[in-house]
């Protein structure tokens, strides 16, 4: 059985969990109240940092789930995403609209990656 490693664990959740050669990241959010662009940029930086700590990088992302507070923000978020994502190794992706933890969050991104 593979070991399980948890990073930045608290009583409710871990920011990252590594099981075997798979990395699971918790939903990442940006600074509450910032624009969709600023939140998405902060989230992607956080994802890069967490993946690096797990021995991975954005070229190894397998699956992405993106939640938007409003689908009206789809194009704005995609402008940041499209400039960031590895075009040679794009992951599978789903994007939907959902009420997030607080109305100040506009974007939440969840990642599964290979090590």
UniProtKB/TrEMBL annotation:
SUPFAM superfamilies reported for this sequence: YjgF-like
Entry-linked InterPro entries: RutC-like_sf, YjgF/YER057c/UK114, YoaB-like
Domain of life of the organism encoding this protein: Bacteria
Pfam family, one: Ribonuc_L-PSP
Signal peptide limits: none
Name recorded for this polypeptide: RidA family protein
Organism name: Roseibium aggregatum
């Amino acid at each position: 059985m593979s070991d399980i490693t948890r990073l930045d664990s608290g009583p409710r959740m871990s920011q990252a969990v590594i099981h075997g050669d798979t990395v699971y990241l918790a939903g990442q959010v940006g600074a509450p109240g910032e624009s969709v662009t600023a939140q998405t940029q902060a989230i992607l930086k956080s994802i890069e940092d967490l993946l690096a700590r797990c021995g991975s990088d954005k070229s190894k992302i397998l699956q992405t789930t993106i939640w938007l507070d409003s689908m009206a923000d789809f194009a704005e978020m995609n402008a940041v995403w499209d400039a960031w994502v590895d075009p040679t190794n794009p992951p599978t992706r789903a994007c939907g609209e959902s009420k997030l933890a607080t109305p100040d969050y506009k974007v939440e991104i969840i990642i599964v990656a290979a090590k």
